[in-house]
Amino acid sequence: xxxxxxxxxxxxxxxxxxxxxxxxxxxxxxxxxxxxxxxxxxxxxxxxxxxxxxxxxxxxxxxxxxxxxxxxxxxxxxxxxxxxxxxxxxxxxxxxxxxxxxxxxxxxxxxxxxxxxxxxxxxxxxxxxxxxxxxxxxxxxxxxxxxxxxxxxxxxxxxxxxxxxxxxxxxxxxxxxxxxxxxxxxxxxxxxxxxxxxxxxxxxxxxxxxxxxxxxxxxxxxxxxxxxxxxxxxxxxxxxxxxxxxxxxxxxxxxxxxxxxxxxxxxxxxxxxxxxxxxxxxxxxxxxxxxxxxxxxxxxxxxxxxxxxxxxxxxxxxxxxxxxxxxxxxxxxxxxxxxxxxxxxxxxxxxxxxxxxxxxxxxxxxxxxxxxxxxxxxxxxxxxxxxxxxxxxxxxxxxxxxxxxxxx
Length: 408
Fold this sequence. Notes:
about 400 residues; mainly alpha; 18 helices; about 75% helix; Probable alginate O-acetylase AlgI; Ac/AlaTfrase_AlgI/DltB; alginate biosynthesis; acyltransferase
C-alpha cells in the first residue's frame, strides 16, 4: 500500500488533524478516517469487515452469561473451547468469514474454474484482520483485556499502517503503549523507522530485485529448464538466496514503516523481525521472523494442540501447516507449511536428543557456523516451494528444488 500516493496523503493529513484535535476526540477521528480510507479502496469488503467487527464487539458488550456454543464438543474442539470460553461463537463466525473469502475460491477453482465462487477475491488485509479479531474475541472471552472504549477497539483493528501487512498487534499491548502527547522523541523515532524502511524497500530491495531479474530473465520456468550442470545449480541457488533476502527486506521494510507511522500517532507497535537470517536453528529463525504471527500461532493453535495431542511434534507440524494456509489457500503454501513444520519438529527432536546425549558438535564456533549454514540451506531451499505462486504449480516448485540439489 505504501506505493500509493493516496496512502501518504492520507497519512500526512490524518496525522496533522489527529494532533490538532482535542485529545477526547482523537481516537474517534482516527477510527473514522481509517475506515473511510479503506472504504475507498474496497467498499464492499470494508463494509463486511466493519459489520463483523461490530458483531464481535457487541457480543461481549451484552450479557456476560452468553452461552459458549462451542463448549460441548469432544476432543480438540473441547480443548479449544475450554480455552476460548464464551468467545466460541464469535471465533466460529470469524473463521467462517476467513474461510469463505480466502479458501473457498481456490478449493472450488480446482474442479470448476468458472464458478462465481472461484472468482471471489480475498479482501485486502483479511488474514491480519481475522487473526487480530480472533485474538480479541478469545482474550475478551477470558476476561483478560482491560476496560476499553469502542473507538480504541476500532483504531486498533483498522489502523491503516498495520492493516495490510501487520504486525499482528496484541490489543492489550496496543492499549498500554499509547502516548497521548506528541514529543520530539516520538517524531524522531517514528521518522527514523519510516526512512529506514523506505531505504530497505526502495533502494536495497529494488537493487537486489534487479539482479534477480538479470539472473532469471522474464520467465522463471524457462530459467529452471535451462539450468544444467554445476553452473545451473549455482544460478538457482543465487536466485533462491537473493529471493529470500528480498523477501526479508520487503517484509521488514513494511513493518518498519508501519511501526514508524504508528509511532507518529502515539502508538508503540510490537516488532516483527529481529535479524532472522543470522540464526543457528529453525526454531530460533521463527522466533525472529514474522514474530507477531509466530506468537499468535503459538498461543492460539500450538498450545491447544499440544494440550489435546500430548505430542509437541505433531502439534508443531499442524501449526505450521496452518501458517502456510494462512498465507494462501494453495498446494504450494500447504507444502511450504509442512516443510517448515517438519523442519521445526526435527529441530526440536534434535535439541532434546543432543541434550540427553550431551552432544556439543554445534556448540563450538565452527559448529555454530555449520548450524547457521544448515538452517539457511533449509529455509532457502524451502522458499522454492512458493517461488511460482500464484501462477505456477507445485510440480513447478518441486522441479526447481530438485534442480537446486542437482537431481533435476
